[in-house]
Amino acid sequence: MVDLVFADNVLRFRDDDVVSDPAVTVDAFVDAVSGQPNASAVRVEPGDDARALLPHLDRLALVEVNFPAYTDGRGYSAARILREHGYTGELRAVGDVLIDQLSHMRRCGFDAFVPALPISADAAAKAFATWPEVYQKTVDGRTPIWARRHPDA
Known about the structure:
By secondary structure, this protein is α/β, with parallel strands linked by helices.
């Protein structure tokens, strides 16, 4: 597992360079006629269907998922969909990302975070370490407790 690093105001669990390409909307990316199909970064807004990106995952270096309010959890689903379908590029949570959400976002597949209000790397590391064991299936590679207890299930 890659350690948490803080670079260019981005908390990341990646050892590659921070993707700085400008992100286009999902509609602009998938619209081959009048859109921007050559973009390598996309921003998923609440209400966008992340499944529209599935045929293009190999072309994307970055998917930003916007959280305009901490109460809007649709971005968690977008992250799971993308990771479960094989997306390996940077998956960045941006916006109203709170420290107590970081570990949950990581479990859904986010590997980079740009919170609207700064979070120190030390505070983030502590938040990620708060729940070392998980009960639900994750996409971050951790084995849930139930699977350890019942390996044949």
